[in-house]
Amino acid sequence: MVDGHGSTSLPGVFAAGDCTNSAFKQIIIAMGSGATAALGAFDHLIRN
Ligand SMILES: Cc1cc2nc3c(=O)[nH]c(=O)nc-3n(C[C@H](O)[C@H](O)[C@H](O)COP(=O)(O)OP(=O)(O)OC[C@H]3O[C@@H](n4cnc5c(N)ncnc54)[C@H](O)[C@@H]3O)c2cc1C
Fold it and tell me: Could you tell me the superkingdom of the organism this chain comes from (predicted)?
């Protein structure tokens, strides 16, 4: 389960693509969620 930033319930762990609770399992959605998770991880590192 990931939130809108790709963050999982484990602090500092982000996920993207088919292994998440995304509604549709498609390549373009996995790519977009990868970008979201990368930005979410960057934001997490800046704040912590
Ligand atoms: C038969 C089929 C047809 C599809 N057709 C389409 C289509 O036409 N259009 C479309 O948009 N989508 C299609 N999809 C969906 C699309 O393939 C997926 O949504 C997309 O590949 C998900 O990308 P992902 O990076 O999340 O996961 P994946 O592409 O599954 O990548 C996960 C990677 O992690 C690796 N891995 C797993 N466990 C470990 C481990 N322990 N350590 C290291 N690496 C590991 C795997 O080997 C794999 O390379 C299809 C899927 C299937 C099965």
Answer: Bacteria
Are the C-beta atoms of 31 and 47 separated by less than 8 Å? Answer: no
What the block records as the tokens of 6 is: 């790709």
| 7 DSSP β-pair partners | 14
CA-nearest of 43, 28, 34 to 2 is 34
Give mean pLDDT, residues 14-43: 98
- As a whole number, the mean pLDDT across the chain is 97
Q: What is the pTM of this model?
A: 0.93
Beta carbon of 30 within 6 Å of any ligand 1 atom: yes
